[in-house]
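Researcher: I'd like a candidate sequence for this fold, 173 residues long. If you have to choose between options at a position, lean toward the conservative one.
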């Protein structure tokens, strides 16, 4: 910048590896979320990991702590919004779009298992009938999990429709 100020983009280490970049995203997200938990007076610990090409950040409670469920909301709606806000906080610091994935109280992990099973069951129906199966409308996260499960079953799938009614169609081989 010519005015003598620097931005987070300017201060990012040159030649930073993809892993280091994702770890930095996780750190920024953790700081943001810790501040949010403090403001909301909620107890929770932050876990960070990197899976594939995205940072994973989880807010976990102690034992059967249901107070964090407020951050999940009905069908994960609050969690989706919180994830977007966290991605914006990362973007503000790095100047780069983040694909960070946020989980609260294991909601996404449980949802992922359910959706993988749904994808496997739909694949089995397609295999046995030879006809395509159209699933209910899903969020982008949900569709991705189902697409991965269908691919793992050796079949193909595609998304059709417009948000928020976009759904997965499992196709015969």
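Model: Candidate sequence:
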């Amino acid at each position: 910048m010519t005015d003598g100020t620097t931005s987070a983009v300017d201060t990012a280490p040159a030649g930073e590896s993809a892993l280091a970049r994702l770890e930095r995203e996780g750190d920024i997200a953790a700081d943001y979320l810790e501040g949010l938990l403090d403001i909301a007076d909620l107890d929770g610990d932050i876990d960070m990991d990197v899976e594939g090409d995205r940072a994973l950040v989880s807010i976990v409670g102690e034992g059967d702590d249901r107070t964090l469920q407020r951050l999940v909301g009905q069908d994960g709606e609050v969690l989706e919004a919180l994830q977007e806000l966290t991605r914006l906080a990362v973007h503000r610091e790095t100047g780069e779009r983040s694909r960070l994935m946020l989980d609260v109280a294991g909601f996404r992990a449980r949802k992922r298992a359910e959706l993988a099973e749904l994808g496997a069951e739909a694949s089995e129906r397609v295999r046995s009938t030879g006809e395509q199966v159209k699933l209910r409308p899903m969020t982008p996260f949900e569709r991705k999990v189902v697409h991965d499960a269908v691919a793992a079953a050796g079949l193909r799938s595609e998304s059709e429709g417009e948000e928020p009614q976009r759904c997965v169609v499992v196709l015969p081989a």
